[in-house]
Amino acid sequence: MIIPQRGSNAFKLLYTGNNGEEIGLDEVQLLDDYPQTRIRDLSALLNDSNLFIRYQAILILTAWGLEVGIDNAENMIVAGVADDLNLSPNRINGKDNRFDDLAEAIHLYVLSGGSGVRACKAFCALLKSYPIYYFESKFKRALLKHATPEMIGEIKDSILKCLKAGKFYQASQLLPILAKLDSVACWDIFPEIAALPMQIPDPAANIAEALRYISTQDSDKLLTQYLTHKGAGVALAAQESIDFKKKQSIK
After folding, report:
1. Rounded mean pLDDT, 242-251
2. Residue 22 gets which letter from DSSP?
3. Claim: this prediction has a pTM higher than 0.85
4. Which end of the chain is more exposed for a tag (fewer CB within 10 A), N or C?
5. Domain-by-domain residue ranges, the chain?
């Protein structure tokens, strides 16, 4: 990973505000008053020889709701990892979190006025990559906001492939999304994940979260049982789901 030199044109485009103050890429993604010349200059970075610079330009242009951004984001997703660079090291385990960051950028793309249909296509591409690569939690949050019924098949397939690959927690992260879209299909998958031993992070926490979207006597009973679960974060997720159901019943 070759970070652009401070003071360079790429550094200014990727990490500074409109007045030249250094604010970091996350804040640049949230700018809403950027000049058109900055779009032109960032788009030019998509042809830079430095993959890291190209990647970060994609994150910004996508977050700004621009088609040139999401087109390049999807191209990167479909291409997969064909390099030995870690473009987004996770702060705890060091794993490359590039696809999770792309998911967050696509979420921002929608919030910035981008096409929901276009975003759905990119999210489906990410779901195909999900069992192969590392994802922390941004993709899960994005799907909870933007997943559509058309994605149910891809979500179920990704869960099953993750389970087959031994990525149990990563599989469980998609359960709340599936439960929100198709509670019956989600309930059918629960037993295999619920039978797993406690681990860190614990898949049971995502089961407890998913249960807020399933309204049956059996699901409510299981949710109550999770209130005393010893796995990290499981009891808290169960209580939050119970509170969520109470609020929904009042509406």
Report:
1. 89
2. B
3. yes
4. C
5. 1-146
